[in-house]
Amino acid sequence: MIYSILLCTATLLTFLASDSLLANQNAPNQTEGKQTTINVADHGVTPGEDVTFQMVRLIETLADTPGVTLSFPKGQYEFYPENAKETHRAVANHDNSLKRMAMPLFGCKNITIDGGGSIFMFHGRISPIVLDGAEGAVLKNFSIDWKRPFQSELKVVASGKKSIDVEIDSAQFPYTVKGGEILFDHYDWQDPIGANIVFDPKTESPIHNTKQYNLKFKYPIKATDLGDNRVRIQATCEAQPPVGSVVVTYGRNPTSRLAPAIHVANSRDVRIENVTVLAAGGMALIVERTEDIHLDGFKLTSTDQRLVCTRADATHFIGCKGTVKLENCLFEHMLDDGINVHGAYVKIDKHLGEGQFICEISHPQQWGLTFAEPGDKVALLSRTTILPFHETTVSKVVPLNERRFLIEVADLPKQLAEGPLSMENLSWYPDVVMTNNVIRRNRARSALITTKGKVLIENNVFSSQMHGILIEGDNNKWYESGAVEDITIQNNVFENIGFGGAGRYPLLAAPLLTSEQKLGEGHYHRNINFTNNRIKTFNGRIAQARSVKGLNISGNQLEFSTDYPEDMKLPSVDLYYCDDVRIDNNAATGFEDSLTVAQSDDTTNVNLTGNKGITTK
Fold first, then answer.
1. Domain boundary residue among 371, 394, 425?
2. Which domain covers residue 226, as residue numbers?
């Protein structure tokens, strides 16, 4: 394990267990096996004022008390960073930093946070809820919001060749124009214009062919205050954003992913019920090194006054096991994916002999990740082909810093593969169950699923700017591992997938390779079933697959959609280096011409039967 997580966890556990000067109340009596309910109002936690200090103090008193429900009378509770608990934390797929936490729930057993329908309103860079080393935790019946969201939204009122005029709600998105530059005022910092995306307020989604409207700047960005909350901004792009569209900007890296709404780590048996996230300075939910988590009625959306909620994903699960289950959830208006489930590839920097390796965590936003512990099963693989060549067991892990560690394994093959090597943890991959969820109106994909566990995706609705379901595997950018082995995608609705443009599909299954990497002998993904789905589409696409063995595309219904301009440039099914493919009993209606199936010469054993409106190319 990486030392920073251990050190932070140990420090906070020690603090919570000590006779802190803050802890001037006695912990409640607890009968073993029963749940004790505490009305937080009895501990000074009341609506309408900053309750951060009182919450931290109350949580301290419960450090050694299992089976407690913290019950909030319905209201709006304010949380500010000044009296929050602070410690350095490494948060996967975010920016590591000193984190101030409103509810630091470390080492808790069977704790329940019941908001009673309340709104938890946050101010500044603060982490609302952190579960670490928790077991049996339940979060339910509350909403998380920020008084000042992390993005700013600029309505386009005039659009020229090299500039746009925007109107800004200065109450929601306060700003300052000074020295010819616009800066957006937050709690105790200012953000310049940075990464941006254009939304269409009519669809509440990224605008059609989104990328062409991305604003490109030369820093410092020149801005002119026009009065009446209007600003002229000099920028160039492929196409000027149309009048009435909304430019959403969210600052520059590495300070735009500092405050996820809920962070769960090193925990087990976690349940989140009827929780709504309306804003976050990162992801709504990030989960790492956790066994069994269940989301029921988890909702991610924006307020009526805003188009966007979170800076990043709705939900993200890295290095988990057991079962990740989502049901009855709504994810919309986030600026990244709906769900991402994966492991991590780490680079092998040096083989020291005797089964010892120095490894490096490959992506900066995974530094501090707990990659493995003794007893975990790992695979060694070629970084060139990202295919495994040996499986073994971890004997020892010695952290060096948040980026590197020494790992010792039980045995090695007689000869290692040539070229650069990587390692992946085979013990920490979860099963995934997704039923009756809606993921829509967001930047990026609906679902990224790269796990070796058993996956069922059924009775969901997907409508995202990029791919619907991306099954990837990436040893070159984010280093997200997990070649799938058993995935069923059935009875879902895919609506206008890929409205952002650039050749997106309801299903894309393919490893992401650099120009230096290549497909090896053997297929990366296996046993993907895409069946009985309804696809409402303006581009006629079903699936694109690369390096897949065992692909079943059957019983799907395609209907032509007029919601976006027709785009029939790509094949309906595109196969590259696949084997054992079944494409049968699919039907396409409403298209002028038949849809096509394209396959490379090295794709083998393809069976096409009983399809209507779909032919081979």
1. 425
2. 152-249
